[in-house]
Amino acid sequence: MNMTLTPVRRAESLRESLEGDIATGLYPAGTRLDEVKLASRFGVSRTPIREALIELAASGLVEIRPRRGAFVREISIPRLVEMFEVMAEYEAMCGRLAARRITPEELVALQTAHEACQNAETAGDPDGYFHANQTFHEAIYLASHNGFLAEQASGLSNRLKAYRRLQLRVRNRVASSLAEHQAIVDAIASGDSEAAATALRQHVLIQGERFNDFVSQVSRHQGAGGSSG
Amino acid sequence: MNMTLTPVRRAESLRESLEGDIATGLYPAGTRLDEVKLASRFGVSRTPIREALIELAASGLVEIRPRRGAFVREISIPRLVEMFEVMAEYEAMCGRLAARRITPEELVALQTAHEACQNAETAGDPDGYFHANQTFHEAIYLASHNGFLAEQASGLSNRLKAYRRLQLRVRNRVASSLAEHQAIVDAIASGDSEAAATALRQHVLIQGERFNDFVSQVSRHQGAGGSSG
DNA sequence: ATGAAAAATCTTGTATACAAAAAAGATTGA
DNA sequence: TCAATCTTTTTTGTATACAAGATTTTTCAT
Questions:
Q1: Domain extent for A93
Q2: How far is the CA of B34 from the C1' of C25 (A)?
Q3: The domain that contains A67 carries what CATH number?
Q4: Over the stretch B173-186, which tens digit does the pLDDT of each residue have?
Q5: Nucleotide with the nearest C1' to B42 CA
Q6: Do residues A139 and A187 touch, judged by C-beta distance below 8 A?
């Protein structure tokens, strides 16, 4: 039942499919994405595939090496740390602005999302939690009332999705994550922009040993080699 | 004398050309970019043109409306304010990290860039100042030792380039800009990360009446209509 | 058996061809 | 004269064709 209102280039939906396939690990980092194979897999010609790959390259998910093809980008651990460092700052900035600018309706949406997270946790539903968590953070992006910032934050969050999933596997992460959410909601609701910024920054950074746990998870997932810069 | 070391897809150099043509105003905001015309202008087929347009769309410079073509994106004033708000935060973050992580060599590079700015100002060379200023900020991005952040900052700075040029036309802007640079260098050199962050944030934000001057410049430049969201 | 050089194959990058959607223009009825 | 509909033209989106650069395989000399 496809009721698309705006027409979409085929290449664009292909991009989404490929994005998903990369995120789920169907095409792990380093994989060469053969245009002809992808074309036959999706039942289209090479043209829309190429266009999708170019979009993916622009968003940083794949790397196009001229005359040699598109490869799923290897993200080294240091690079990942850098990306999380920036993500933390996006979140902090969204929180700082949201504390000052959030509307009553947006605050309700944020609280609802927070409750959904709590429900998923009591229900012991990790996938549900993951999804609700995403909604929670999106609510903050929107409440920043800076559309450009919201786009950047969503974009990077999306690129880090696969790794955030791993992050939640760290022991007790979900429980402490919920406590942090509560502090964030409180800070935003009371209009304390600096508290909101700090809480969100820390929430993303996962400082101390937690972070090491996380890194070791990623290492195991990627295989030993720290590899490319 | 083209001594390109890495091969480049034709589409990629086309993207750079078009980027320049948009920045210089050859194709002003709202212009429809006709694939066939561009193809004949550059003496290539539509294929590489399309690929270049897709890249430009990904970077946000143009908008592709399915089945109706590519248009140079209109950036509304509110949107521009949002982008500067994010730019300010990128700079602040780079400064905060640079104050902690800068190497002696990088500090020398930063001071050299600062002097180049001063020389351009005494020489009364606005273009020279513009360029030296860019070098100065790039030096800070690099000194952050966060390659991902540096890429984001460079990218956005590049997208805002045309508007920053306008910004400098505001009366006395260059002089006060230089004073701010000095404060930034001092903060970074002394390792005061919060001072560096604050100085850089303010440097970009151009608060108070300065900002209104700037906005009115932009309005005049774009024509009256505040237009699209 | 090993390594270098040459040939064959594969793959990308670009050009061209064609179908379908939009836009522009012509035609008809009021 | 104006509006609505039909027709023509333009333009995008996708498929296919082809050339040149990679890659792999084969061949040959040591």
A1: 77-222
A2: 21
A3: 1.10.10.10
A4: 788 889 999 999 99
A5: C14
A6: no
